[in-house]
Amino acid sequence: MATTLVSGINALLMNQALLLYAGENGVAAYTVIYYVFSAMTALYIGYIYGVSPIISYNYGQHDTDKLKKLTKVNLIFIALVSGISALTAWIFGGNLIGIFAEPGTAVYEIAVHGNFIFMFALLFNGFNTYASGLFTALSNGVVSGVIAFCRTFLFSLGAILLLPGILQTNGIWLATPIAEFLGIIVSIMCFFRYRKRYGY
């Protein structure tokens, strides 16, 4: 919910920054990059939605052994998929972008350059999404909301407002990776702080 509520504000600010520094082609390029990003994140987002009821069930059963095993498997899966997704987006980025933008056009060139920077977010996004989903599954909506709010709004807003003024268009592409990187710090802190309480 927190992510959805603020996504419109982030999109507005991102588009305004792109219009200022890269024009209409920059806005079109961002749309293409986000299509690729969404495709890369779909697998582990689906996995997190699927595993959440299992986490809830084992927590309700007070089965800490299964929770610990499940957490280990989940973290390994998220790490592997995040790494593979990022590599796929970097190696085949031109091909994926070519589905939406004609190679050789200004939009394509901007998107290929922006894609390489933007996709660093994939290295952090998976664990952040998992951490938020974990606490939702454990009926701790406050911590889940804090994680989601920090990475999708607070850090993202700060990065969008600050970085373009320093790095121009590259700052726009860096905004999401920086927000996700700062978000993973919050996620890790929450993950370890509540580990004993929930027994995962």
Automatic annotation (TrEMBL):
InterPro entries: MATE_fam, MATE_MepA_subfamily. The chain crosses the membrane at residues 32-52, 73-92, 112-130, 142-166, 172-192. GO terms for molecular function: antiporter activity; xenobiotic transmembrane transporter activity. It is a multi-pass membrane protein. Its main location: membrane. It is found in: Cell membrane. Keywords: Cell membrane, Membrane, Transmembrane, Transmembrane helix. The keyword Lyase does not apply. One of its GO terms (cellular component) is plasma membrane. It comes from the Bacteria. This is MatE protein. It comes from Faecalicatena orotica.
